[in-house]
Amino acid sequence: MATPLEKWVEEQAALTKPKKIHWCDGSEEEARKIIEIGIKEEKIEGTPVFKELNQNRWSSSYYHKSHPTDVARTEHLTFISHPDKDVVGPNNNWMHPDEAKQKMKKLFDGSMKGKTMYVLPYMMGHPDSPYAKACVQITDISYVAVSMRIMTRMGKKVIEKIGNSDNFVKGLHSVGDFSPERRFIIHYPEENLVHSIGSGYGGNALLGKKCFSLRIASWLGFKEGWLAEHMALIGVETPDNKIYYIAAAFPSACGKTNFSMLQSALPGYKVWTIGDDIAWLNIGPDGRLWALNPETGFFGVAPGTSMKTNPNMMRTLKNKNFYPILFTNTAINIDTNEPWWEGLDGEIPENLMDWQGKKWEKGSSAKAAHPNSRFTVSIYNCPTLSKEYDNPRGVPISAIIFGGKRTKLLPLVVEAFDWEQGVFSGARSGSETTAAAAHSVGVIRRDPMAMLPFCGYNMGDYFAHWLSIGKKLKNPPKIFTANWFRTDENGKFLWPGFGDNIRVLKWIIDRVENKAKAKQTPIGLIPEYDSFDLSGLNFTKENWEKLFSINREEWLQEAKEIEKFFCQFGDHLPEKIKAQLNKLINDFK
Ligand code: SAT
Ligand code: MN
């Protein structure tokens, strides 16, 4: 008798009609074979899926050039499919499951003809963790099969774990013809199911990542009493060898990966890495908040990564521990066959091939590496990996940080008065769009808890869920907001950032230990000048005042915009969040 898993795979094969089916065991040997197939057989518009890079300088590294229209997440083609539109909320695109299923059936029909169907059994979370989830993804491209080996715990054991049960998260993925017109990423939260077609790009195609571990998982968390969050997870070791665990939410392009492996500028302090993108937060048996990273790898932005900005990532990329390492849409040094990107250490090479496979003209204003070019590398390569990373329980959280990029308005660090106000400060947070889109520089995109593209249900209910988690915690972690990006009147960054962000973490820990002084303001508690470690930094009191200044007019304007944003959630917006907004306005009047 076929198991529910076997039956499901058979049904998908009957629909997509692959040439053959390969059940992956997740071994290194298998990954080598699949990469070989990607080099020799599989092609995207005539280009092999993989190309071997210089193995002497970048061991186990391979290059992948994606379809040129397929270089980022496509939020407008991403849907939550549930019978009730209201439940899905204004923060998601909605499609009725009947319509979605019908549409997808047509698109998947025969989509794997002539191709291999890879069946990938994987766990999100440590297999011994009570919080882990068993999943199976089907895909038709070697790149996704190999990426999933890096990003998740993949292997036969998962099949044993699933056994005869139907309790596993299902993901059906096909690159189809890569056409944006036939590209859809559809989540069915009631069925723990994701359909993805038309894209091979990370967040669209590695279904364990944003699709399951955030969108579907946020839904599970809402029903089961936990939180799936877009957060980095670190341990900060103090000079007396105590380790404090901190979860930090930042929107894309705010340096979350750099933060997760920060090299401390303060002697005696050290940051241990647990995760750079996703954290699952559970209320432990002791009533504290516990967190784990369900992933096992980094899918990081290459441009800007260097020995200066993130030395530990450069070491991770040169580590031989775990096979393989993938580079997607970077440039390639033609003479040495090494990956290259803007911001990498050293001279710009003489002969570069750009991310579209064309010779790059030196001095050209076009980028050689795509701005969203990526590396995919195992977390086990990371020299700062925390000893607690594989602990099935996760780690106890002492503090939560909500961040964003705000060149004005928001001080470097602010402590919330309590959980409720902390949830409000996460809910109102936003980030400025970057200079990449010239017309929209400085535009604020509200991005509550950095979850706007990833919360799988009505965000008003999500705020309420956050509030209810706080009520259930015996000793809720302190909540902070952080902003590394404030500028002075000449547009110059006020704060050095990177390794110096440890000073902010130190103040946060001192607050957790009731050791540092803080000053009350309408938006929360800010550091007293003499309670914040600026030792060894040439940082003037004048700059400090600018970094922590709170401008009444700007905040009243901000409050108006927050109100406008909140409005869309109608009666799903919790009264307590409304009350927090009113209090903010009154305190400034
Ligand atoms: O969604 S991805 O994981 O591909 C990248 C991101 O964090 O936005
Ligand atoms: Mn992310």
Task: Give an overview of the whole structure.
With 589 residues, the protein is an alpha+beta fold. Helices cover 28% and strands 24% of the residues. It is built from 16 helices and 33 strands. Strands 1, 6, 7, 8, 9, 10, 11, 12 and 13 form a 9-stranded mixed beta sheet that branches. Strands 14, 15, 16, 17, 18, 19, 27, 28 and 31 form a 9-stranded mixed beta sheet that branches. The longest helix is centred in the middle third of the chain and has 17 residues, at 208-224. The chain is globular, with a radius of gyration of 24 Å. Manganese (II) ion binds at residues 230, 252, 277.
In the CATH hierarchy, the third-tier topology of the largest domain is known as: Phosphoenolpyruvate Carboxykinase, domain 3
Strand content: 15-25%
Using the 3D structure, state the CATH architecture of the largest domain.
Alpha-Beta Complex
Low-confidence parts lasting 5 or more residues at pLDDT below 50? none
For the record, the CATH class of the largest domain is Alpha Beta
The rounded distance between the terminal residues' Cα atoms is 71 Å
Helix fraction? 25-40%
Tally the structural domains: 3
Total strands: the figure is 33
The SS-based structural class is: alpha+beta
Shape category = globular
Q: Could you tell me which ligands this complex binds, including any ions or cofactors?
A: sulfoacetic acid, manganese (II) ion
The number of helical elements comes to 16
Q: What can be said about the biggest beta sheet?
A: 9 strands, mixed
CA-based gyration radius: 24 Å
Roughly what is the average pLDDT, rounded to an integer? 96
